[in-house]
Amino acid sequence: MTDGRKQHQRGPVILRRAQIGAGTTDQRLLDSRGSADFIHTDPWRVLRIQSEFVEGFGLLAELGAAVSVFGSARTAVDHPEYATTRRLGEALVRAGFAVITGGGPGTMEAANRGASEAGGVSVGLGIELPFEQSLNEWVDVGINFRYFFARKTMFVKYAQAFVIMPGGFGTLDEMFEALTLVQTQKVTRFPVVLFGTAYWQGLFDWLRGTVQPAGKINAADLDLLHLTDDVDDAVAHIVAAEQARSEQTRAEVAVATDTVRRNDGQ
Ligand SMILES: C/C(=C\CNc1ncnc2c1ncn2[C@@H]1O[C@H](COP(=O)(O)O)[C@@H](O)[C@H]1O)CO
């Protein structure tokens, strides 16, 4: 050919002769807004949900070892639990972990504060709420989610362990989700520390005395929980579990390598 007037490029597509339409893709994008109704539809929400995963993965992919700390949004700054959680944040940083929280007030703030003051990585994964709330001031790496389930994926995906401080429905939801994921092997077994025996013992006893005898959970499921009142014990439990997991991974790699070698030699 090529008569320039008889060829049209639409992105990577070449159109010629009668196939040539009016205008360019950019023109169609920029010349008209069209109806705005689409932003209230599920297909558009799917894109927003996708963007939350993209932002979350992008922010946290290089985080390194981390522990998610959960607990009440209502813990007052002068409550002993605030001071304990602050010490826990510091101790986790000293043990080489970043600290991830929901980025809100109360216990979340205390954990972020301890981590930040200890010079560690203090992460807050906030959530859009019906009332105004910004990330607590001790969050050094933060992101705000619209969707609970996208945010919850980050708590699990980027943590080596959970510490559950005393809390209400939100905290209970986070604890039971973690336990369900481990029980159903959606995540490889990882430690869940219940911090505060006076607060959690009743729940633990009910699980052991009622739920397990009724056959609703196995005895082994309760082994997933570690109850303590001691910051150093909580951290030591997490470190030991992490070491055990590394050793198991090393052993699995050794077995796999050996199998490949033997198969190659046949
Ligand atoms: C109710 C108040 C603030 C709520 N703000 C929150 N911000 C971020 N994350 C939150 C918030 N509330 C709950 N969460 C999540 O659930 C857990 C705490 O819930 P609980 O019911 O208070 O135990 C926590 O780990 C967060 O991930 C008052 O100011």
From TrEMBL:
Keywords: Cytokinin biosynthesis, Hydrolase. GO terms for cellular component: cytosol. It is an enzyme of class 3 (hydrolase). GO terms for biological process: cytokinin biosynthetic process. It comes from the Bacteria. The keyword Hydrolase applies. InterPro entries: LOG, LOG_fam, LOG_family_nucleotidases. It catalyses: N(6)-(dimethylallyl)adenosine 5'-phosphate + H2O = N(6)-dimethylallyladenine + D-ribose 5-phosphate; 9-ribosyl-trans-zeatin 5'-phosphate + H2O = trans-zeatin + D-ribose 5-phosphate. Belongs to the LOG family. This is Cytokinin riboside 5'-monophosphate phosphoribohydrolase. It comes from Jatrophihabitans endophyticus.
